[in-house]
């Protein structure tokens, strides 16, 4: 499989492509019962940087067994606590396999794309923050254009773009868990997802 895969989130079958990619990448890891951690990075204080915790909120009711979640709207993982969270993960779990999820900036024609790579991501790179690289693999959603004044760009990112990416990526993760371990509890995912979307829409 390619080391870097770019998906168009607007394609109808995008969640299933994410599922197939993740299932292939996780196949060997799942056999070893190695803990798999979804590390959703970002903060709800910035629209453009809220992709990670939004995804965390959408999948928190379905992660179980070998899957562990860090980063939700209530308990976000961001620049100020990332190092502490990584230390906690490494102390609590033996040889964890981390799927790092974050928003990123890119070219205007790539806004809305999802990038899956076999390498760590660099949180806060757009803001020139010196944070540790994290993730055995990474999933990033391109939420806006890169260039100058990244802080302002993230603050002025469309909520629709972020919500759409969060929805597609979370559905891809849902189908990944359903395909790899399966559980009756996952049948409630769509109901939970719709409730979360309605609550967030009501607040915006």
Instruction: Count up the helices.
Output: 6
CATH architecture: 3-Layer(aba) Sandwich
Shape verdict: globular
Stretches where pLDDT falls below 50 for ≥5 residues? none
**How far apart are the first and last residues' alpha carbons, in Å?**
39 Å
CATH topology type: Rossmann fold
Average pLDDT metric: 86
What is the H/E string?
EHEHEHEEEHHH
GO molecular function: peptidase activity
InterPro entries: Pept_HybD-like_dom_sf, YyaC
Keywords: Hydrolase, Protease
Protein name: Spore protease YyaC
Task: Characterise the protein shown here.
It holds the Pfam family DUF1256. One of its GO terms (biological process) is proteolysis. GO terms for molecular function: peptidase activity. This is Spore protease YyaC. It comes from Clostridium brassicae. With 204 residues, this protein is α/β, with parallel strands linked by helices. It has one domain (4-203): Rossmann fold (3-Layer(aba) Sandwich). It is built from six helices and six strands, in the order E-H-E-H-E-H-E-E-E-H-H-H. The protein has helices at 14-31, 51-59, 82-92, 150-155, 159-180, 189-203; strands at 4-8, 36-40, 67-70, 97-106, 113-117, 137-145. The chain has a six-stranded mixed β-sheet with strand order 1-5-6-4-2-3. Helix 2 links the parallel strand 2 and strand 3. Helix 1 (14-31) packs across helix 5 and helix 2 (51-59) runs parallel beside helix 5. The longest helix is centred in the last third of the chain and has 22 residues, at 159-180. The radius of gyration is 16 Å and the shape is globular. The mean pLDDT is 86.
